[in-house]
Design goal:
CATH architecture of the largest domain: 3-Layer(bba) Sandwich
CATH superfamily of the largest domain: FAD/NAD(P)-binding domain
Bound molecules: flavin-adenine dinucleotide
Shape: globular
Distance between the termini: 31 Å
Strand order of the largest sheet: 4-5-3-12-13-14-11-15
Low-confidence stretches: none
CATH class of the largest domain: Alpha Beta
Order of helices and strands: EHEHHEHEHEHEEEEEHEEEEHEEEH
Strand content: 25-35%
Number of domains: 2
């Protein structure tokens, strides 16, 4: 095997795709099922929430990813027949206290931003229950339906001959004289010249026996999904760190909590109550529709949201692409490309020094 990818979330699948496209023999290992953890649980917004709050390393990955998504989604739809459902829904931010910072950001990472008054806001989103005097409108921001993206990516990888082994936990890295030689898994040893840790919230545990200083903590996020109708809402709404995402088929997602409760993925009644209250405050008509699903996922949390993307200096052949916290879907394409650039020793798309462990 040329390369083993540990973890079949969006990071692992996109990284495997990049490497397979370059001709490598790749195997993706997942301790559970591929594409069922954080990447499945997320909202699929193709932008950080309040993007101006993030440091440049995150901005660079996000911008690259936003530009790449239309082409990526077309390729996946053509090759697999599964539509990741990218749609430009636009993002309405109902908090305007940070408008100057947002405007500055929108000028630097060119993005359209309009300040709407109350009348414009209610004509754009007539079902809104919260009507501040002003709101920020980012008409170009998009979303994907992340579970569909993951299904499409998985099928694409299988078509490309990538091996996918589920229920196969990597227990340790195999290292000989400073070089990676493979991994020890729950189903035996697998040899490989290169190994990429795309293990999301579990990365710190995976690397704990090495001297790598990777600080990634699970941060639980709970979401609700209503079964509504497509005409109810067409924009993503963000207010006081809570958001509403309308899908093409009328389903509406409400998110999300931020909980530091370790590897516990249980859902709670209090979060359910809180998110229902958010839902009906934002869109009162949602009270007429049923909640279809309530779930939780574990974000790979880092202190500042800057992921770890690097080739290890002490262990030849070991790479890390983890710790994307709240933004792994939008950061995924650029992170995967940059990781592949490191593995293949190509000219990197972005300076990798921005994402080295020592910098974070
Ligand atoms: C509620 C919520 C909302 C979100 N909304 C958005 C959003 O709107 N936009 C956005 O961009 N991002 C969003 N995110 C964040 C995004 O989902 C994550 O940053 C991203 O999914 C991380 O991807 P990943 O592949 O690193 O992790 P994961 O998807 O968690 O995948 C890691 C995989 O590694 C496997 N694994 C771990 N350890 C091992 C091991 N030892 N051996 C084998 N396999 C292993 C796991 O089983 C898992 O499948 C959200 C997240 C949540 C939870």
């Amino acid at each position: 095997m040329d390369c083993i990818i540990i973890g079949g979330g969006i990071m692992g699948l996109l990284t495997a795709r990049e490497l397979a496209q370059a001709g490598m023999k790749v195997c993706v290992l997942d301790q559970a099922a591929v594409g069922r953890e954080s990447s499945w649980a997320g909202g699929g917004i193709l932008s950080p929430l309040y993007p101006w709050r993030y440091a440049e390393p995150v901005q660079l990955l996000a911008k690259w990813g936003q530009q790449r998504y239309p082409g990526l989604v077309d390729e996946l739809l053509n090759d697999t027949g599964i539509d990741p459902q990218r749609q430009v829904s636009g993002l309405l931010v109902l908090d305007t206290a940070e408008h100057p910072a947002a405007q500055n950001w929108a000028a630097n990472y060119p993005t359209r931003l309009a300040l709407l008054d109350k009348a414009q806001l209610s004509s754009l989103a007539p079902e809104l229950g919260v009507l501040p005097e002003q709101a920020m409108w980012f008409p170009e921001l998009a979303q994907v339906r992340n579970p569909c993206l993951l299904k499409s990516l998985t099928k694409d990888l299988l078509q490309r001959g990538v091996e996918i082994r589920e229920q196969t936990q990597v227990e340790s890295l195999l290292i000989y004289k400073g070089e990676i030689t493979g991994v020890q898994t729950s189903a035996g040893k697998i040899d490989a010249q290169k190994v990429v840790a795309c293990s999301g919230a579990w990365t710190q545990n995976l690397l704990q026996d090495t001297d790598l200083k990777v600080e990634v903590q699970p941060v639980k996020g709970q979401m609700l999904m209503y079964k509504a109708v497509p005409e109810l809402l067409s924009q993503i709404i963000l207010h006081e760190d809570r958001y509403v995402i309308p899908r093409k088929d009328g389903r509406i997602l409400i998110g999300s909590t931020l909980e530091h409760t370790g590897f516990d993925k249980s859902t709670s009644q209090s979060a359910n109550d809180d998110l229902r209250q958010v839902a009906t405050r934002f869109i009162p008509a949602l009270a007429n529709y049923p909640v279809e699903r309530h779930w939780a996922g574990l974000r790979p949390g880092t202190a500042d949201g800057i992921p770890y993307i690097y080739a290890d200096e002490n262990i030849t052949g070991l790479y890390v692409n983890s710790g994307h916290f709240r933004n792994g879907v939008v950061l995924g394409p650029a992170s995967a490309r940059l990781t592949a650039d490191l593995v293949l020793e190509r000219e990197p798309i972005i300076d990798p020094a921005l994402y080295r462990a020592s910098n974070v």
